[in-house]
Amino acid sequence: MTDGTEKKNRWAVVVLFFLAPALAELLTGSAPPVEFLSPAAFIILAALYGSGAVLIRELRVRWKKGYWPTVLILGAAYGIIEEGLACKSFFNPAWQDLGILGTYGRWAGVNWVWSLDLTVFHAVFSIAIPIFIVELLFPEQRESRWIGRLGMTAFWLLLLAVTIFGFLAFPYTPSFLHVLPAIGVVTALFLFARLLPTPRSTPRQGWLLWPICFTLAGFGATVFFFVAHWVLPELGLPVWLTLTVTILWLLVAVGVTRTMSRGGRWNDKHKLALITGALLFWTLLAPLQEMDPQRLDDTTGLTIVAFFVLLLLVWLRGKVRMRIRRETLVALE
């Protein structure tokens, strides 16, 4: 490995380490700029999100698995680690962000609607999207290892340390009857991702939808997901119905994506369009959050964050289009 490649790999790790918390916490308004950039919060969030994203990306490469299934399954395991074990929001009925979900869908000491929604959220927005964006930024390093054994060990220890810190620091202590099943599910998801067969399907022939269709699909799926997350509980629908709608949404989203991709024939241009649509939801929501008089925290700067994310996505679009055009010309020569 050349010195230039090693330097790019280090930069890729650094960008992913900080991009994951920036998208999951800063862009979404969960931790507005004033809170996110405070030294203590910044260190903890980067250690938690960053180590999880880097580890999952490295496992995907080392296992030689398909990108989306492996990353999303491991991302779900990460979501349980963060929300179930570190923050314990899966079990704490007084968690500050729960709102109505502290009572709606709570059974046997578990906030079930919140748990399902946050597991999906972290798999997509905390893990899969940051990894994909960074691999677009460093396309030559996409299938190479970015860190060695020592680096893997260091990130595992960092994730373990920040998880234990969160478990001890945040109020509310769930029983072992809650903690042990959470650890069991994380282990099961890890093994499932490890044993998942490498996809070898031949892409189907036919007309592939335009990238704008993927953008609209990503935006629509995100809007529907958060309607199910917040609006349906407020309407007083039965809990089982809200959970069923969310699960059906997952199945439909996977099926539609597979159909739109024509069995794997889509390229980075279409994939970027899909995640652009998903992130567009948050960029449009940011000004509304900043102007929301009901928010008690300082939301100053959320609109600026959204603006820079949009700039990043536009720049990435141009970068990807140029690379694909260049690769096409080389293939035709």
Describe the structure.
The chain has helices at 3-27, 33-36, 39-63, 67-86, 112-137, 149-169, 176-195, 211-234, 239-260, 268-291, 302-332, and strands at 106-107, 110-111. By secondary structure, it is an all-alpha fold. The chain has a two-stranded antiparallel sheet. α1 (3-27) crosses α3 (39-63). The longest helix has 31 residues, at 302-332. The mean pLDDT is 91.
Q: Tell me the span between the first and last alpha carbons.
A: 29 Å
The total beta strand count reads 2
What is the strand arrangement across the widest sheet? 1-2
| Total helical segments | 11
Specify Rg, calculated over alpha carbons.
20 Å
Helix content: over 70%
Report the major sheet: 2 strands, antiparallel
Assembly type: single chain
H/E series, N to C? HHHHEEHHHHHHH
Q: What structural class results from the helix and strand content?
A: mainly alpha
Mean pLDDT across residues:
91
Query: How much of the residues is beta strand, in percent?
Result: under 5%
Low-confidence stretches: none
Overall 3D shape: globular
